[in-house]
Amino acid sequence: MASVPPGVDLCKIPAGRPPAGVTPNLTNPESLDAVTYSVCLIMTVWAVSFATARVYVNWHKLKLADYFMIIATILTITYTALILTLAPYNRHQWNVPACWFTGKYIKTIYAQVTLVGPVLFFSKCAIFLMFRQLFEVHRSIQICVWIGMVATFLIYFPSIPLSAIFEAPRRGQSWEDLLRSLSAGNGLKLVYWGIVQGSCSVALDLYIFVMPLPILSRLHLPFAKKMQLLAVFGTALIGVAASVIALVYRIELLGNDDSTWQQACLAVCVVAENNVAIVVGSMPAFANFMRLHVAELPTIRSLRSKLWSGSSNDKSGFGSSGEVANPVATFGSPQPRKPAAYYELTESAIMRSQFTTVHEEGVVQKSTGQNGNESGNGIVRTMDIFQQSRRRDEPQSTDHLV
Fold first, then answer.
1. Contact indicator for 253, 263 with CB cutoff of 8 Å
2. Domain Rhodopsin: where (predicted)?
3. What is the CATH number of the domain that holds 236?
4. Is the model's pTM score more than 0.85?
């Protein structure tokens, strides 16, 4: 734009040079407006719903992880609003009028670059703090949590000073002067940092996804329950996919003459990554909210009743009316055996420091300490019980074994 002669109407000049054989279209060009609005709306509603459910469940016992998630949700909404303000620019650069590139445009870009680091920091630190609560009896998880939080800070917070250095005007320089400097090719330094940050973000998302898997795989749960837990924490894979795609678009920004189109694609991926981080951090509490407040609604109970009405009582445990068939237990009758250890997913913990192991000859109870190791003052007792019957005229037998 610096080479445009004075007096020329910039609104009739494309901001970029089109490829060979392509004619600029400044009236009704191809645009990513619809995609941007759709992704922003869907992802924001999804994330806000999960975060609201988390705050509702934990309202009377809010902890640091909940406050981090609240901050992350507010920052994400703000970041998404900034993305939507630039939706008219979501077209190929040769289809954007040159007069659209003003000081206001570069200010919005600066706000986006500055805000994206804190958004991801608070949302992903909230995930680590959630792991710290859920797996509090595992010292290895506690160490991994602190490593992850330090890495999150080092990955995302440097974007604040770097954006102030490379995306803000110097003293005595206007935003329009900065725009002309960036259009001359002086803005690639922050693009390089974006590639570094994006690569580290992919590694961090993989770290978040893998960290709880060893603990979940060792839980003594039925296969269906274990798959439900893996599905809850497996939502982190969506964040991994979003960060990988965002990294691809960050790389394509290097030496690309169609920066507006690439930035629009990148913005959509970053919005998805931000909101997925909030969903992952709120998933356990949301599952608890559904179990406590939604599953017991009359409509849901009626639907469950209809779904189970045709099933066999012997296999499902439900009667024709949908009620659970609980047989009356008598002394000496076989009792249903529970799994060796059962962990219920709640808003505060799924791991407990005490578990029960069942053997054929009796029950062995083991108590563990806070670090998950067996405590030396635990009580172990094995008991065999035999039931005998006699007629009324027989003398009472004194043979018994305890």
1. yes
2. 58-290
3. 1.20.1070
4. no
